[in-house]
Every structure is written in structure tokens, then in C-alpha cells.
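Input C-alpha cells:
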């Protein structure tokens, strides 16, 4: 009973302390929302969904939308109704998107104007959900979102009876291969992740973050965004990522913490006004989804920003590794630039061999997680859940180790490891060395067939604009730092490495295009 009351009043507790404090600033519309206003908006949405549409605890509400305040109306509504939020990447192929929606069966789908044709296709395919447009006009729909928010004839919701193990969100995995799966994220997981972020990054009510990532991805929700809203901080939302607009917001709003992916940071650095933009407001910038190379990190370090690689996974929080930002200087960051940090609070971490036994410290093994941040399995997919979870531990499929200071280094995906001359080769180790070559923006290694060695490395290199990095420089650097068996046989220069919608490397596409010896 106590847990149920605590969860039901989670938003109200924040209002007690931060009611007049700004929670969300919608940069595109210029609208500001205090914690008191967000509490009232979520009351209205809760009443509409439960009383007007008859939804019950455990029913799903979906979003096919660009970032907007409505996502946060819905988030706070989950505490008041027990409804489950599921958010969709509407840029997926239609077949994949429709399959996800069919599996999760949301009773309501909120959508933004950009995806009107997607909704039309859903209707044509026989989907009968209540579709509600977040924008005006909203012809063809029974309800408009603005009408829900303008309604003053509502009552405060009644506690539906909540438990920390009840599911609060379905968040789709942003994996490098295969169709996304819906990870079930409980109230418990969301709570402990927020605590881990708040303590690990030393967040406070004085912190502000610009939300640059989409809310169909776990990092958009769970790295800084929800943790800041749990402690009274401030979030600036934008409909989509626009580097010019982000730099303007940095100059005007002076954010203090942030997370993006490598491609977004590259886009910022290439803007003409990047050089003049003062980044001294930032205590830390985090880069996720895939490791960011030293060449790009240096551009932000030069501005005095502690910009660090981190590690997260939808199924484990995702705040799993972080650098102790309050205890380190930029020189410390430089010294461990290719580390993803130390295990975040409330995470239990092990490195294991193929038999599930712990490997000695400093030796490579598969990274596995336990603890309070773990997800609750995949929605309607016990087979996939059984593959990734064993005896209460989530097996990440990532290979890595801890150094003598307790910092984690990722060597690469277990399935992406290749065998050359009988030796296991981990691409990340070689890529980190290549990233030390001046002018290399990105390096990606795949194993390709070889008649003598079985497999050899083929490295894809993205050069910085105007820099003429040569094959000889790449080979010489690797030979100097690593054993000869790890030297890639092929060096291929490319404009970009294929990525998926959340900035992770698309291994299927990479192997399709480059998984053979160079011609």
C-alpha cells in the first residue's frame, strides 16, 4: 500500500518543492511549463484516458511523434493511471512499424502532423486505435490534443493500485541487427535509473539539458531527461535535431549537462558558429550509442568541456557506466578517452567467459549486468528474453574489461569478434588505436574471409574534411601499438559508416556492403 501511494503521488511530491520552477521549455513554440502546470496537464490527460476512453491500468498508449510536451504529459500520467507508454520510430520500414504496433496493441496512438500519412496507412490496414493528433488541424480524428488540454471539466485521478514491478514503459531496442524488440521497463527500473544518474553525474535542480535525442530511444528518456525531472531540473525540448538551433539554445539558455550521439556532435562541430559558441556552461557532455573518436572529442575538450564516452543499454537502465565528472579534470578524461567510465551506482557488473564464469580483472570477458536497473523482459517475447537473461543477469553481448582503476573498456561485440590465424580479434581495440591517427574521424573494422588466415580485418576510415590520411599511416600506427595479427589487411576510405536511426552502426548493412575482401 505504501509503495502504491508513493508511486501515485510521485509527481505531486515534486510539485511540493518545485511547483513554480520551470520543468520544460519548448524551444520551438516558446512555451514554458512549470512543474505545477505539468501536474495539471497530466491530471487532464489521465481523466481523459480513463474516464472518457475507459482505459485501465496496464493498457498501452502509443506515440508516433516528434518530441513534444505531450510525451511528458503521458509520462506523469503513468503514475496516476498505471497506463504503459510505448513510443515508435516512425522512420522504420512500414512492415516493421506495423508489426510492433500489432504486437503491443496500444489503445490510443498520439501522432504529430509529420506522420499523418503513416496514420492513414495504419487505418487503411485495419488498425482501429483511437488516433489523436498533437497538432492543429486534426481533421478526421474524433479528438484533438488541444481540446484535452483546454478542458477544465475534469477530476483528479484515483489511485489504480501500483507496484514497483508494474511496467511503466515499453522502449524499443536500438540494436545493431534485427527488428527492434519492446523492452518492458518497470517503475522500479525508471526510479533506480534516475537515482543512478542523479548521484553519478551529481545532478541538481540547477541543471538544464537540451533534449537532442528522439523519445523513441531510451537515451532520450533516461539519460538526464527523466533524472532531471525527478529532482526538479529543467529540460529544453526541440521537435527534431537542428545543429544551428541547438547552438543558439546553448548560447541563450546555458545548459549544464547533455547527451548526443557522434553524428550529432559532428554536425555541431561543422557549423560556422561552433567556434564562437561558448560551451563553458557545460559541466559534462556525454556521447552514447557508439564510441566517439578522439579527433572529435578534442574539439570539445579544447572548449573546456568534459566530454566523455559512456555505455548504456535499453535492457539495463540505461545508465550503466559513467565518468565521475565531479572528481576528474579534462586531463583525466584525455587519459581514459576510450573508456566508458566506471559502473554507475546500483549496477552490478561482471565479465564472464563462455561458460559464465568470472574472468580475472584486466582480462576480456562478456559484460553482464545485475541489479535494480534491469528490465523485465521483452513484451510478448519470452524466447528472446531467455536468450539475454540468465539467473538474473543480462548478457550484453559486448566484450570488455576493467583496468586497474576500475574503468571499463569495451572491445567490441561478441558476435562481431572474428578469428584470424586461430586468435580472437576484437575490433574495438584496433579501432581505438587507429583513432589516434590525426585526421581520422571514424574507424570501423569487420572480419572478411581470407584463404590463409581464415579471416582478416577490413577497416573503414572516415577522414576529417581536407585531411589526406593514407593507408600507410593506418598500417604503421597499428603495427607500432599492436601485434601483427591485428593489423588490418584492407583499408577502405568511405564518406560515412552506415548507422541506424539511433546512431549505432548498422552491422547488417556494413557486412552487406563491406563484408568481403577489397577489390
Amino acid at each position: 500500500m505504501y509503495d502504491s501511494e508513493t508511486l501515485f503521488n510521485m509527481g505531486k511530491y515534486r510539485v511540493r518543492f518545485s511547483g513554480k520552477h520551470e520543468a520544460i521549455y519548448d524551444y520551438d513554440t516558446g512555451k514554458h511549463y512549470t512543474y505545477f502546470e505539468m501536474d495539471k496537464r497530466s491530471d487532464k490527460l489521465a481523466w481523459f484516458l480513463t474516464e472518457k476512453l475507459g482505459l485501465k491500468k496496464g493498457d498501452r498508449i502509443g506515440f508516433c511523434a516528434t518530441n513534444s510536451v505531450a510525451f511528458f504529459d503521458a509520462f506523469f500520467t503513468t503514475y496516476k493511471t498505471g497506463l504503459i507508454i510505448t513510443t515508435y520510430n516512425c522512420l522504420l520500414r512500414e512492415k516493421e512499424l506495423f508489426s510492433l504496433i500489432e504486437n503491443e496493441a496500444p489503445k490510443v496512438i498520439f501522432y504529430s502532423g509529420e506522420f499523418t500519412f503513416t496514420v492513414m496507412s495504419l487505418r487503411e490496414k485495419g488498425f482501429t486505435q483511437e488516433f489523436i493528433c498533437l497538432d492543429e488541424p486534426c481533421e478526421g480524428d474524433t479528438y484533438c490534443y488541444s481540446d484535452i488540454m483546454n478542458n477544465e471539466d475534469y477530476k483528479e485521478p484515483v489511485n489504480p493500485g501500483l507496484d514497483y514491478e508494474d511496467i511503466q514503459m515499453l522502449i524499443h531496442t536500438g540494436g545493431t541487427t534485427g527488428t527492434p524488440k519492446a523492452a518492458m521497463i518497470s517503475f522500479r527500473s525508471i526510479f533506480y535509473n534516475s537515482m543512478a544518474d542523479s548521484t553519478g553525474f551529481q545532478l541538481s535542480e540547477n541543471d538544464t539539458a537540451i533534449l537532442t535525442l528522439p523519445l523513441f530511444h531510451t537515451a532520450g528518456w533516461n539519460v538526464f531527461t527523466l533524472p532531471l525531472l525527478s529532482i526538479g531540473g529543467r529540460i529544453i525540448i526541440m521537435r527534431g535535431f537542428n545543429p544551428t538551433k541547438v547552438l543558439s539554445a546553448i548560447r541563450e539558455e546555458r545548459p549544464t549537462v547533455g547527451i548526443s550521439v557522434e553524428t550529432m556532435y559532428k554536425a555541431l562541430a561543422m557549423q560556422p558558429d561552433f567556434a564562437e559558441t561558448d560551451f563553458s556552461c557545460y559541466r559534462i557532455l556525454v556521447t552514447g550509442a557508439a564510441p566517439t573518436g578522439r579527433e572529435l572529442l578534442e574539439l570539445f575538450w579544447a572548449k573546456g568541456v568534459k566530454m566523455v564516452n559512456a555505455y548504456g543499454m535499453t535492457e539495463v537502465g540505461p545508465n550503466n557506466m559513467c565518468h565521475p565528472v565531479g572528481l576528474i579534470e579534462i586531463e583525466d578524461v584525455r587519459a581514459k578517452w576510450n573508456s566508458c567510465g566506471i559502473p554507475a551506482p546500483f549496477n552490478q557488473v561482471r565479465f564472464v567467459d563462455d561458460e559464465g564464469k568470472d574472468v580475472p580483472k584486466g582480462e576480456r570477458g562478456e559484460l553482464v549486468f545485475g541489479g535494480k536497473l534491469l528490465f523485465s523482459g521483452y513484451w510478448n517475447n519470452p524466447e528472446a528474453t531467455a536468450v539475454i537473461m540468465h539467473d538474473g543477469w543480462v548478457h550484453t553481448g559486448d566484450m570488455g574489461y576493467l583496468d586497474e582503476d576500475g574503468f571499463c573498456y569495451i572491445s567490441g561485440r561478441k558476435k562481431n569478434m572474428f578469428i584470424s590465424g586461430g586468435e580472437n580479434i576484437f575490433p574495438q581495440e584496433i579501432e581505438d588505436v587507429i583513432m589516434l591517427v590525426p585526421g581520422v574521424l571514424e574507424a570501423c573494422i569487420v572480419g572478411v574471409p581470407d584463404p590463409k588466415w581464415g579471416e582478416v580485418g577490413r577497416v573503414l576510415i572516415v577522414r576529417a574534411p581536407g585531411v589526406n590520411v593514407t593507408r600507410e599511416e593506418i598500417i604503421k600506427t597499428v603495427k607500432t601499438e599492436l601485434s601483427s595479427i591485428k593489423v588490418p589487411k584492407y583499408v577502405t576510405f568511405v564518406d560515412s559508416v552506415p548507422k541506424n536511426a539511433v546512431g549505432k552502426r548498422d552491422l547488417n548493412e556494413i557486412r552487406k556492403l563491406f563484408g568481403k575482401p577489397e577489390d
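The first helix runs from residue 2 to 8. The chain has a mean pLDDT of 91.
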